[in-house]
Amino acid sequence: MKIEFLAIPEVALITPPRFQDNRGFFSETYNAERLKEAGIHLPFVQDNQSLSTQRGVVRGLHCQLEPHAQGKLVRCTQGSIWDVAIDARTGSPTYGKWVGAELSADNWSQLWIPPGFLHGFCTLTDNVMVQYKCTGLYDKASERAVRWDCKDLAIDWPIKPEEAILSDKDAQNPGFAEAKGWFSYSK
């Protein structure tokens, strides 16, 4: 399992190996011990899956507040996405910074997004299947969101704003200034 920490050092791009033969392939997509060796050792308690039928679907930017904050291990098993993590930990040296990676069925990579980060993605193809493991259970009262195209974040999305397909809920999300104080940074 290849684990590469990105420009925000707590966020990791994880690429499990695929063992191929004439039948197809086998891949161990999650190994608690291997991730623990890399410093990622929170228990996963919930799995989620989404299907987006069109290119340009944007989901996010979402998080949950303490004590229900969620870390997420995200992978794309059909199609491809541009996946983004934004540091929302007040006091962090990378507060308000983002990192992104393309996740696809072809590259088989996953993105580890720790608690205290906003998360969102944009579909790059039609018929995209995304699966992710969460370290906390969904709690509606703890749910928070930020607008996907917030100018303060300056995320380099691979689509134009007029191409974005949003839920009614995500279309109403506030800017990043609302996130101040949601999480505190602790080393």
UniProtKB/TrEMBL annotation:
It catalyses: dTDP-4-dehydro-6-deoxy-alpha-D-glucose = dTDP-4-dehydro-beta-L-rhamnose. It comes from Commensalibacter communis. Belongs to the dTDP-4-dehydrorhamnose 3,5-epimerase family. The record marks 138 as: Participates in a stacking interaction with the thymidine ring of dTDP-4-oxo-6-deoxyglucose. Catalyzes the epimerization of the C3' and C5'positions of dTDP-6-deoxy-D-xylo-4-hexulose, forming dTDP-6-deoxy-L-lyxo-4-hexulose. The active site is at residues 62, 132. Keywords: Isomerase. GO terms for cellular component: cytosol. GO terms for molecular function: dTDP-4-dehydrorhamnose 3,5-epimerase activity. Its EC number is 5.1.3.13. This is dTDP-4-dehydrorhamnose 3,5-epimerase. It is an enzyme of class 5 (isomerase). InterPro entries: RmlC-like, RmlC-like_jellyroll, RmlC_Cupin_sf. One of its GO terms (biological process) is polysaccharide biosynthetic process. Homodimer. It holds the Pfam family dTDP_sugar_isom. Pathway: Carbohydrate biosynthesis; dTDP-L-rhamnose biosynthesis.
